[in-house]
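Lab notebook: predicted structure, single chain.

Context: the supervisor wants predicted structures on file for every construct in the current expression panel, including those that have not yet been purified. This is the next one on the list. No modifications to the sequence; it matches the entry in the shared construct table.
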Amino acid sequence: MPAESFDVIVVGGGPAGSSAAAILAEHGRRVLVLEREKFPRYHIGESLIPFTYQPLKRLGLIDQLKASAFTKKYSVQFIAPDGKASQPFYFFNRYDRETVAQTWQVMRAEFDQMLLNNAR
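Prediction complete. Output recorded below exactly as produced.
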């Protein structure tokens, strides 16, 4: 049996690896993603920031995220160890309401699986 040939081998199927693989495949490259973990898997880093909206849109995932059960976020507030709270930072006061004024609090196992499935 002849060996398969790939243009690019991506090591790691997390958000960066799966996003890179999806974009490379979109541009006609034959891509192999190597991942040692079994997906879905637990991982920290659940709080997406507003500027993830455009890359997620580029990957074609916005409709899937909007339809998901992930908690939508429209602001952020920080609480110091001594209990003092910052003023809330509302995204719509700073960013375009139609795009980056919303983001999500994701479950990384589900989010990473969504990205990896998109790369397939």
